[in-house]
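Q&A FORM
Asked by: J.P.
Topic: structure of RpiR family transcriptional regulator

PROVIDED:
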Amino acid sequence: MEVAERIRAEGARLTAAERRVATTILASPQLVAFGTVADLARTAEVGAASVVRLANKLGFDGYSELQHCIQGELSAQLRPAAERIHDSSNQSVAAHAEAELANVRATLGSVGDEALTALVERLADPERPVLIVSGEATAGVGRLFADQLAQLRSGVDCVQGSEVAVRRAIALADARSTALVIDLRRYERWVLDAHAALADRSIWSAVLTDGVLSPLAQRADATFIVTAGSVGPFDSHVGTLAVLNLITNSVADALRVTAADRLGAIEAAWGDAGALTDGA
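REPLIED BY: S.T.
REPLY: Here is the structure written out as tokens.
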């Protein structure tokens, strides 16, 4: 991204306040694309003047030009893969490594302590069933998270299938449930509808999505912002996996004793069945 490159180039010259603004821009570019100077300043916890000064240091003629540049970059990222594949990108190992490391750093760097604590406390409570709702593109990492969480505790289910199945699952969900909803830009309509139905039932939800202005974030109790930049036609899910790993490990730590018993029972069952082999 052009803006990210400018921030890296000017990093040494930025004040502490300007660095907070820059960090916020990198973590939530949608906030800049669709928000105001005041929105960005409030999120970064700085004055509006710091936002304008940063825009000027980055070579933009004020906030509006910075915003226009980010809007253009996001528009390019939102294009279908069929269009993005024609872009001339650097496909070297180094380019991929830089992009993926940036995704992980930005995603984990934006995790809020309050949101993480609230989610982990609920996921570690065996009296609260867990519902996982994930779009098709993120279904793989969502399924992996559900499988690992189910090894730590009971009462973990994925909400999926036809509209009849999804609506039935939500209608019958325990009011104490915790929902984790995962979907990034170009959202699947059924995911948005399912999340709205959960909110209408006042079921607590955390979302993994691409920005604070995401339609999912608007109705969530806790939001985790995922950065999904890629040098190729498809969005990266490395950042999504990184934050899900953080959540899983935090729950494992909170459930250390009971989780150890469950994991021990699982390992014993695998051993008795000879289900795993080292290839020998």
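FOLLOW-UP: The mean pLDDT is 89.
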